[in-house]
Write a structure and sequence with these properties.
Distance between the termini: 33 Å
Helix content: 40-55%
CATH superfamily of the largest domain: Periplasmic binding protein-like II
CATH class of the largest domain: Alpha Beta
Number of domains: 3
CATH architecture of the largest domain: 3-Layer(aba) Sandwich
Low-confidence stretches: 1-13, 282-293, 298-305, 334-347, 364-373
Mean pLDDT: 79
């Protein structure tokens, strides 16, 4: 830990405070919950306060200094396109299984005409997916009303109270809705490539408090590694937080694992696609250029690679500590030579870290089986 993060020295006098804006309880925020409750934030010298606030006000709260980070990538990128100096620091997921859940009277898309659907907010992922869904089935979205709820938990509550005919939900709220008599009408999360959750910061935060950003990334990566390595405890945390049965929690845990990406990066293809999607609703007609994409995704991939290395080491040690450490040292050496200076080198190190992780796991499996026997 000291070699990889030389600035992270334990000590009360070095404890830094951060505030994170979260709109509601949601599965996609599990890395934040774990980082707090399992002490990973404290371990790197951070004292975190999670503040519940509506998604729509988070960008301005970030600029005003009321919070240091928020997790909604779609909200952050939308605000950056509108001119706010925000950047994507970290991306947790490849996919998010957004589901349109309705009451049982809705049997076809046209049955929603004249009714209302609950989404977290305007231009949030759920709202954009529903807009794409309307276009797919040639429905005039003006004939369907939206209720903005401020978060997935709010959308679930609005549906459960009968105020709307449908809601855009993610696990475990979609399953909770089914137990209350609603139905999963259709998966809509695959209609668009929309970034979901990770870490958004102000450009000034990245420039002036880089160590604080690095520490936050480190804690979140360790939280993800813990989730991957601790199925029973993770499932229990999910069950307790979302008030669902152990069976439902196990299914939700499997869904969560399938959502995580490998290295915390937001693919350029997804970034460009989302910028073009936002631009479709603005007077700007030109397509996004690579320089424009990099403007919104500022934090060096090398920093993320460092956290990835720690994550790999954490997971592989459980199999064979000595071999894991030796292999990770090899990646660390490559990273040190890169010195965070060249994007292409850092991306290459990212790929090498993933390759080493796969090779290590394959090489160690026979040893683990033999020892088990």
């Amino acid at each position: 830990m000291t070699l990889l993060f030389p600035n992270m020295i334990n000590g009360a006098e070095l404890t830094q405070k951060i505030r994170v804006g979260l709109p509601s309880l949601a599965l996609t925020y599990m890395p934040f919950y774990v980082a707090q409750e399992k002490g990973f934030l404290k371990k790197v010298g951070l004292e975190a306060e999670y503040i519940q606030m509506n998604t729509g006000i988070q960008p301005q709260a970030l600029i005003n200094g009321n919070i240091n980070f928020f997790p909604s990538l779609s909200t952050g990128i939308s605000a950056a396109v509108a001119g706010l100096p925000l950047v994507v620091v970290l991306n947790f997921y490849n996919i998010t299984p957004w589901m349109l859940v309705t009451n049982k009277e809705i049997n076809k898309p046209q049955d929603l005409l004249g009714k209302k659907v609950a989404v977290s907010g305007i231009r949030t992922t759920g709202h954009q997916l529903m807009t794409a869904w309307f276009k797919k089935f040639e429905i005039n979205e003006k004939e369907v009303g939206f209720i903005m709820t401020g978060g997935t938990a709010g959308s679930f509550a609005t549906l459960a109270s009968g105020q709307v005919a449908g809601a855009v939900l993610t696990p475990p709220y979609d399953d909770k809705a089914v137990t209350k008599g609603f139905k999963k009408f259709m998966l809509i999360g695959d209609l668009l490539d929309i970034p979901t959750s990770g870490l958004i910061a102000a450009r000034a935060e990245v420039t002036n408090h880089r160590d604080r950003v690095q520490k936050t990334i480190a804690a979140l990566f360790e939280a993800i590694a813990w989730i991957r390595a601790n199925r029973p405890d993770s499932a229990k945390m999910i069950a307790d937080k979302f008030n669902i049965t152990p069976t439902e929690a196990n299914g939700t845990y499997e869904t969560l694992l399938s959502m995580f990406n490998k290295d915390g990066r937001l693919p350029a293809k997804v970034a460009r696609g989302y910028l073009d999607l936002l631009r479709a609703g603005t007077p700007l007609a030109h397509r996004s250029r690579p320089t424009e994409v990099r403007r919104f995704f500022h934090v060096a991939n090398g920093e993320i690679t460092t956290k990835l290395i720690h994550s790999i080491r954490h997971q592989l040690r459980a199999i064979d500590p000595n071999r894991a450490i030796n292999r990770v040292k090899q990646v660390s050496s490559d990273l040190a030579r890169a010195n965070y200076a060249d994007l292409n080198i850092c991306l290459a190190v990212n790929r090498r870290a993933n390759e080493i992780a796969v090779r290590s796991a394959n090489a160690m499996r026979p040893v683990a089986v033999a020892s088990a026997r």
